[in-house]
Write a structure and sequence with these properties.
Distance between the termini of chain A: 37 Å
Strand order of the largest sheet of chain A: 6-7-8-3-9-10
Oligomer: heterotrimer
Keywords (chain A): ATP-binding, Cell membrane, Membrane, Nucleotide-binding, Sugar transport, Translocase, Transport
CATH class of the largest domain in chain A: Alpha Beta
Number of strands of chain C: 0
GO molecular function, one term (chain A): ABC-type ferric iron transporter activity
Organism (chain A): Nonomuraea wenchangensis
Distance between the termini of chain C: 29 Å
Strand content of chain A: 25-35%
Protein name (chain A): Multiple sugar transport system ATP-binding protein
CATH topology of the domain at 89-278 and 289-310 in chain C: MetI-like fold
InterPro entries (chain A): AAA+_ATPase, ABC_transporter-like_ATP-bd, ABC_transporter-like_CS, ABC_transpr_FbpC, ABC_transpr_MalK/UgpC-like, Mo/tungstate-bd_C_term_dom, NA-bd_OB-fold, OB_MalK-like
Shape of chain C: globular
Number of helices of chain A: 8
CATH superfamily of the largest domain in chain A: P-loop containing nucleotide triphosphate hydrolases
CATH architecture of the domain at 89-278 and 289-310 in chain C: Orthogonal Bundle
Chains: A alpha+beta (355), B mainly alpha (273), C mainly alpha (311)
């Protein structure tokens, strides 16, 4: 098991598209690490460059303090689960799981034993003689996982491990994957475009945009304190309110309302400055009565989220959203006031967090 | 049941009957004459004799020519499959310089350089290289003719096979040749089978090339022997011709039935020629 | 199965950014090995397909003969062979016969018959459809030497089945109407390709389009004209070009009539064989081959253009 380190890693495609732009990243031994970003941000390219399937144009990749930048994929001691699992359709489950051992010239009996052992651990005992085409999506995923486990590699790479499962199975697999990684303790990097998946599973994560890492941190850090407006807008099931505002003395004017300067930005703003005020709908306290430091407007839409409601306020033609607990949701057309939590609200200057 | 509907039905079945007659009548002789004691050109009810098959067995060139057809077609198919598979794989997966131009040229070549257009130089080439009456020479020439289309069809097939299988094997440490052997060949096996069947069918029925390049009657395939049987020696021997023609045709029909059963009859543009 | 929301990111080979001496194609083959994979096939193609085609261009400019003085020392004669061909009535006769053969058997015979069969059987399943299709395909897959003789037997003047059926014994099809015979023969032989192509094309016409035409009260003919033809226009053109090319190069008329009687069915393919390999005038034969190659080239380029524009 080993740490993964990237130094100034750059990937330029022929034609000049820069998929990765001088990335630096350290993933400590045993960590479950997520690469998150919208499609085309370079996250899959990054994973494939770590695996060696793409050759780096500059910089270096270190696995377990060994520079593997010029090493063939097979020599890097990593194992990868592909988005489509890439289970060989002409081999049964046993042979698929044992394939990495076959390459390492392990004898047949040992291979079968090892495959049976790993298969049993993932609950595949009954399926060992089947072909991948006879398995469900969830079973195929477990076979793919068993196959990488059989390699006993230093690090695992997962490319969108959940995207081929249907929605209900995805939640189950999420828990399963996280538990498995905990137990194995192998450094694991996975790529996802789904921020909820990254938040739920990862120990730490990197949010990527256009070949750059925009933030690295634990899910809690990234959720609570996005360091720029890109991350702020990308993370969260309901998007963060990002409202243009002005500094007026020791308060802020946002959407025509007066709000307090958030704790984090206190003493760091100058009068008259243009800023972006950010607060998650979850971090707003909603009331029907005018409230001190509240943003007031007309209720435009109420969406049911199950245990809570998402209320959309029209505040002087600006949209502001707040999450309201079950039972106290307003009706459309009511007057409403949303008070941001000062310890959770954020201020961005030129797109970057003021802190 | 409007009169229009009835007329439509009558028209439909008349058309089908005419079509069936048009396509069946020429074939009837092939299935009746071999079982008739003294066949004439006319289709008659056979008396189910096996004597004609006996005659074919005894003919000095009949069975050997079927064997020659088999040698030529299987030999060509093997060469075509191996060479086309290697080339198609490399062209599908590696960005070789000039790849697109090469593929375009291959497609163009395979459609314009036909046996008809190239028979004069091929004949001369065979004379110069001492390949007249050489089955190996004929196999090489036939392979050269079939390869461009085979490469093109196989490359299409390989392009539609996901790369992640090979990449997966590669991350596990398999060498390129191991990947080809363990993963690629099993994955594209249906494509290889298609090309093999296509090549065999092509060579099995080919008349012009062996007719031009093999003058030794002991080396000639069934296509040439069939032609010789009905053009040489005055009155055609109808017993021989019909029975031999049937034996020569049966493998093609069996192969067609096998392919359409195994793969379902998928439509491959221009698969035959 | 839920699908990935993000499309696969660009993954591609990287000729410029190679480091550490390894290639980034899927199997790690590398250009050198890839070149070695392609080379054997290209060598064979170069030797037995490209070289002959170039050689035919050269031969056409010489007075090469199979036997005699010109066989030992062929002379360069420039365009004489082409001028000979243009001045030779036999060449023009063959060209005219070839045109009849292509138009009659391919463009009219195979296309019309193939489309008709595909159209009347389009909504049918079951044994009748399988029987008709099976017979049509059988005519296509049997060896040409065999089917040619089947037609020789069918059309025989005295004992042939056709004359017996029609009650006109003694009618010499192959002698009196050789072109008609080979045109009908080739229609019979080659309809399968057009039938299958149109069958596939008709299967791709969206049923909802036909249904909405029917709801609007269109007759069968109107449905064909307004819905089906616009949809399969590309297929028709593909089909026409391919079968014209094949029929133009088809040598099987030789098996039926050997070009006779008196050259009355000597299409260009047979003409080349007769002058070059039977009479031994290789130079002249090569000149005619060159003309065939050029015509093939025009049709093929047209066809490839069409394929490209479809993509």
């Amino acid at each position: 098991m080993a740490a993964i380190e990237l130094r100034g890693l750059t990937k330029v495609y022929p034609g000049g598209v820069k998929a990765l732009d001088a990335l630096d990243l350290v993933i400590p031994d045993g960590e479950f690490f997520a690469l998150l970003g919208p499609s085309g941000c370079g996250k899959t390219t990054l994973l494939r460059t770590i695996a060696g399937l793409e050759a780096a144009s500059g910089g270096s990749v270190l696995i377990g303090e060994r520079d593997v930048t010029g090493t063939q994929p097979g020599g890097r001691d990593v194992a990868m689960v592909f988005q489509d699992y890439a289970l060989f359709p002409h081999m049964d489950v046993t042979d698929n799981i044992a394939y990495p051992l076959r390459i390492k010239k392990v004898d047949k009996a040992t291979r079968r034993d090892k495959a049976a052992e790993v298969g049993a651990r993932l609950g595949l005992e009954q399926l060992m003689d089947r072909r991948p085409g006879q398995l469900s999506g969830g079973q195929q995923q477990r076979v793919a996982l068993a196959r990488v486990m059989a390699t006993q590699a230093q690090a695992f790479l997962f490319d969108e491990p959940l995207s081929n499962l249907d929605a209900r199975l995805r939640l189950e697999a999420r828990t399963f994957l996280k538990k498995l990684q905990r137990e194995l303790g192998v450094t694991t990097v996975f790529v996802t475009h789904d921020q909820a998946e990254a938040l739920a599973m990862a120990d730490r994560m990197a949010v990527m945009e256009a070949g750059h890492i925009r933030q690295i941190g634990t899910p809690a850090e990234v959720f609570r304190r996005p360091v720029n407006t890109f991350v702020a807008g990308f993370i969260g099931s309901t998007p963060m309110n990002l409202l243009d505002g002005l500094v007026r003395g020791d308060t802020l004017e946002v959407a025509g309302c007066k709000v307090a300067v958030p704790a984090l930005a206190e003493g760091r703003l100058s009068d008259g400055e243009k800023i972006v005020y950010g607060v998650r709908p979850e971090y707003m306290t909603y009331s029907d009565e005018p409230a001190e430091g509240g943003i007031g407007g007309k209720v435009a839409i109420v969406e049911n989220l199950g245990a809570s409601h998402l209320v959309t306020l029209d505040v002087n033609d600006v949209i502001v959203q707040a999450v309201v607990p079950e039972g106290s949701e307003p009706a459309v057309g009511d007057d409403g006031y949303a008070v941001p939590r000062s310890d959770r609200a954020l201020v961005y200057r030129d797109g970057e967090l003021v802190s | 049941m409007t009169p229009r509907f009835v007329l439509g039905r009558i028209g439909f079945y008349t058309l089908i009957a005419v079509l069936l007659a048009f396509f069946t009548i020429p074939l009837l002789w092939l299935v009746t004459a071999p079982f008739t004691s003294d066949p004439t050109y006319e289709v008659r009810m056979p008396d189910f004799t096996w004597e004609n098959f006996q005659a074919v067995l005894e003919h000095p060139y009949a069975l050997p020519s079927l064997w020659n057809s088999l040698v030529l077609s299987v030999g060509t198919a093997l060469l075509v499959v191996v060479m086309a598979a290697l080339a198609a794989y490399a062209l599908s997966r590696v960005r070789l310089p000039g790849r697109d131009a090469l593929l375009y040229a291959l497609l163009l070549l395979s459609s314009i350089i036909t046996g008809t257009a190239a028979m004069v130089p091929l004949f001369q080439l065979a004379v110069e290289l001492n390949l007249i009456d050489s089955q190996l020479g004929l196999i090489l020439i036939l392979t050269g003719g079939l390869l461009p289309a085979a490469i093109f069809m196989l490359k299409d097939f390989m392009d539609s096979t996901p790369k992640s299988y090979e990449e997966s094997a590669r991350v596990f440490g398999a060498s390129p040749l191991q990947i080809v052997r363990h993963v690629v060949v099993p994955l594209v096996r249906p494509g290889l089978a298609t090309i093999a069947v296509w090549s065999i069918a092509n060579v099995w029925g080919n008349f012009l090339m062996p007719y031009l390049l093999l003058s030794d009657v002991e080396k000639q395939p069934a296509a040439v022997i069939t032609y010789t049987l009905y053009t040489e020696g005055g009155q055609a021997n109808l017993r021989m011709l019909s029975t031999f023609g049937l034996l020569y045709s049966v493998p093609v029909v069996l192969m067609y039935l096998f392919v359409s059963k195994k793969y379902g009859f998928r439509f491959h543009g221009g698969i035959k020629r | 199965m839920a699908q990935a929301i993000s499309p696969p990111e660009v993954i591609d080979g990287d000729p410029s950014g190679r480091r550490g001496g390894y290639s980034s194609d899927a199997a790690g083959l590398g250009r050198l090995r890839a070149g070695a994979f392609v080379a054997p096939a290209l060598l064979l193609i170069a030797a037995f397909l490209v070289f002959p085609a170039l050689w035919v261009l050269y031969l056409g400019l010489t007075n090469y003969r199979l036997t005699g003085a010109a066989a030992a020392e062929p002379q360069f004669v420039g365009l004489d062979n082409f001028l000979d061909a243009v001045a030779n009535p036999t060449f023009w006769n063959s060209t005219w016969l070839t045109l009849q053969f292509v138009l009659g058997s391919a463009v009219i015979g195979q296309v019309v018959l193939g489309f008709t069969i595909a159209w009347v059987l389009r909504d049918r399943r079951g044994p009748l459809k399988r029987l008709v299709e099976g017979l049509v395909i059988l005519a296509w897959i049997l060896p040409s030497a065999v089917v040619s003789f089947l037609w020789v037997a069918l059309l025989d003047r005295d004992g042939g089945t056709l004359n017996a059926l029609l009650g006109i014994p003694g009618f010499a099809w192959l002698l009196d109407h050789p072109m008609l015979s080979i045109i009908i023969f080739n229609t019979w032989r080659g309809t399968a390709f057009s039938m299958m192509l149109y069958g596939a094309a008709l299967g791709n016409v969206p049923p909802s389009h036909l249904e909405s035409a029917r709801l609007a009260g269109a007759s069968g003919w109107q449905q064909l004209r307004d819905v089906v033809f616009p949809h399969i226009r590309g297929h028709i053109l593909t089909n026409l070009l391919l079968i014209s090319l094949w029929t133009f190069n088809d040598f099987s008329p030789f098996l039926l009539t050997a070009g006779g009687p008196d050259g009355r069915s000597e299409v260009l393919a047979v003409h080349v064989y007769k002058v070059a390999l039977q009479s031994g005038e290789l130079g002249y034969g090569a000149a005619v081959s060159t003309i065939i190659l050029l015509i093939n080239l025009v049709v093929a380029v047209f066809y490839l253009r069409l394929l490209r524009s479809k993509k």
